[in-house]
Amino acid sequence: xxxxxxxxxxRYLRPHRKVVLIGVAALVVxxxxxxxxxxxxxxxxxxxxxxxxxxDVLAQAGLxxxxxxxxxxxxxxxxxxxxxxxRQVEAELKQQIFDHxxxxxxxxxxxxxxxxxxxxxxxxxxxxxxxxxxxxxxxxNTVLAYALTLPAxxxxxxxLTLAAVGLYPLxxxxxxxxxxxxxxxxxRQQEALASLSDLIQEDLSGISAIKIYGQESTxxxxxxxxxxxxxxxxxxxxxxxxxxxxxxxxxxSISLLLLLALGSGQLESGRLSIGDLVALILFVERxxxxxxxxxxxxxxxxxxxxxxxxxxxxxxxxxLIVSSTSPTPPAKPGRGAV
Length: 338
Fold this sequence. Notes:
This protein is mainly α. The protein has one domain (7-315): ABC transporter type 1, transmembrane domain (ABC transporter transmembrane region fold). The protein has eleven helices and no strands. Helix 7 packs antiparallel against helix 10.
C-alpha cells in the first residue's frame, strides 16, 4: 500500500475545517445513538420475560423509533456536510487547474498530450472529490463505530465479543493484500484512459489530414491497440474488486454465524440472557457494514490519493514563458516615420 499523503489531504481540507468538524461531531452523535439502541432493545427484551403491559411495549417501541429517526436525520446532515466539502474542493480545484493552464505555453500541451491534461482535470479531480468526501466520512465512521461498539459488546460478554470479531483481523489482512494491487491497477487504468483520450483528441483535431493522406486504417489500428490496453487494465481492476468484496462480506457473515452458534450454547446454560444475545447480534450486524465497506472505502482512498498526486504534479508545473508583472518601459521612446 502506498504512503498516505496526509499533508496534501490536510491542505485541501484546512479551508473547510469548521464544516468538517461539525460533520465529525454529527457522526459521533450518530454512533452514540446506534450504540444506545441495541442496549435499549436488550433491556426491553429482558423486561418482557417477566410479563409486560401493552402500553409499556408501545412506549418502548416509540422510543426506539424516535431514536432511530433522530439517528437517520443526523446521519443525513453529516453526509450533506462532508460530501459538500468534497464538492466544494472539486469546484475550487477545477478553477485552480483552469487558471494554471492559462499560464502554460502552447508547446507544453502538445508535448504532454491534451488527453492527459483533460484526464487529470476531469476524472482525477472527481476522484479527489470522492477522497475528501466519501472516503473521509466512511473512514471516520468506521473508526467511531469500532471505538464505541466494542466496549459495549465487551460489557455484555467479553468471550463472545472476541469470538465474533476474531475474524476481523483476517479481513484487514485481505484488504492489505489487495490494497496495493488495486492502487497499481487503478493508476494503469488512468494512464491508459489518458492515452486513449489523447489519441481521440488528436484524431478529431487532425481529421482533415487523416482523410487527405488516407491514414484511416493506421489510426484505427492505433485506436484498437490503446483501447485494448485500457480494456485489459479495467478488467484486471474489476477482477481484483470482484474478488476482494465477496471475501470481506463472507468473513463478516462467518463471524455472525459463529456468534449465533456460541451464543445459543451460553443462552441454554443461563450465562447469557435473550436480550444480551439479541444486543450482541445487533452490534455485530452494525459492524458488518462498515467492515465490509472498508475495502471499497480503502480503494476510494487510494484511488483519490493517486489522483491527488497527479493533479499536484500538474499544478507544480512552471511555465517556461512567464509574463512580467511589472514590465520595464524602454529607456527612450521609439521614433519612426513612414
